[in-house]
Write a structure and sequence with these properties.
- Helix content is 47%, strand content 7%.
- By secondary structure, it is an alpha/beta fold.
- A four-stranded parallel beta sheet has the order 1-2-3-4, sandwiched between helices.
């Protein structure tokens, strides 16, 4: 900026005001609240992700565009072949199977919510089906079509800001069920080899995001309007929770997700609540707000008050809005990783469909 202004007019004196360095949010503990990067599998070599992260990268791309794999397959198809009289064109068979799937309604993907019948009907009429059917083996086409349908249902849930996104195991089970309905063999055979380009591209993008996590975190903090509202008008949030807990019999366990975990932590720090024996946070920004000097009730490096109860902090390594507390409050926080198998941002909404989350909470109940 200095050079640009000086080029427009001689004699200008530019005096920068570095407000960020003096007053901005910084990770004063050197990033202790940031989980380690995922996908560091030995033997794979530099620049590669482990298989689970490659799969996650594929799903991230599919949530952004459910037809992405089919588009790549269609792009690789050659000219239409002349077929013997009476033979059924591959696309005709594929469209018939999709129509039959749509006739079953939403039941084959009930775990993902409504919409399968509509999605299958739309895909059956989509122009991509023709060239993709020409390019792919019918079994591979069934798998790619199944992933497309599953991705569309989850993407619609994300667009609707649904708090419940299935964990990766449930997603994959539904995908297998749909694939078999579309003519794929049971899982265990080699599938979807034509999606390797998509997986590689997605993996590269994911690694770039993870490498820049600290910069992205500081640049977007605090991004959500709810967090802004809480940080500026948080007393009402804390008073409401305090009033609710005061009417309960001990032992009380307070569980909070995302901003809810911030509110719970802040409330328990601001004054004793002896009824509460355990705090559980999931995908919460509380440790980051504390480290950056933004948590209203406690400023770094002040320790966690002795009256704050045991704290179980659950985070998904792929959830960029989940942070660690153990290094900031030694001996006071138990950080536990719970992998939903979902990419971000779906990972942030998948805690409450992950059985591991409930197991860890139960294991820590007073």
């Amino acid at each position: 900026m200095t050079a640009g202004l000086a080029a427009q007019r001689d004699g200008l004196r530019i005096v920068p005001y570095s407000w960020g360095a003096a007053h901005g949010a910084t990770l004063v503990a050197g990033g202790a609240s940031l989980p380690p990067r995922s996908g560091t599998t030995r033997g794979l070599g530099e620049g590669r992700l482990d298989p689970s992260d490659e799969a996650t990268a594929t799903w991230a791309a599919l949530y952004a565009d459910p037809y992405a794999e089919l588009t790549l397959a269609a792009a690789g198809s050659g000219p239409a072949l002349e077929r013997p009289p009476g033979s059924v064109p591959p696309q005709q068979r594929a469209r018939a199977l999709l129509a039959a799937l749509a006739a079953q309604g939403d039941a084959p993907a009930a775990e993902l919510g409504p919409g399968l019948a509509r999605a299958a009907t739309d895909l059956a009429a989509h122009p991509l089906v023709g060239p993709a059917a020409e390019a792919l083996d019918p079994a591979d086409l069934a798998v790619l079509a199944a992933r497309s349908l599953t991705a569309r249902l989850i993407a619609e849930a994300l667009d609707a800001d649904s708090p419940l996104v299935p964990v990766g195991e449930t997603r994959d089970t539904v995908t297998d069920r749909i694939a078999e309905a579309l003519g794929a063999p049971p899982r265990g055979t080699e599938r979807g080899l034509r999606s390797s380009l998509l997986r590689t591209a997605g993996a590269v993008a994911w690694r770039a995001v993870e490498r820049r996590r600290r910069a992205l975190t500081e640049a977007t903090h605090p991004a959500a309007g709810d967090i802004l509202r809480y940080l500026s008008r948080g007393a009402a949030f804390r008073d409401g929770l305090r009033t609710l807990v005061a009417g309960l019999e001990p032992p009380v366990v307070v569980v909070g997700h995302s901003l809810g975990g911030v509110i719970a932590l802040d409330t328990l720090i601001s004054a004793p609540l002896p009824q509460v024996r355990l705090l559980v946070t999931a995908g919460s920004q509380g440790p980051f707000l504390y480290e950056s000097g933004s948590l209203p009730s406690l400023e770094h490096p002040a320790p966690l008050p002795s009256y704050v109860p045991a704290w179980l902090n659950l985070y998904d390594p792929r959830d960029l809005l989940g942070y660690l507390g153990a290094a900031l409050f030694p001996g006071r926080v138990t950080d536990v990783a719970v992998d939903s198998g979902q990419p971000f941002p779906a990972a942030h909404s998948a805690y409450w469909t992950n059985p591991a989350v409930y197991r860890h909470i139960v294991d820590h109940l007073p």
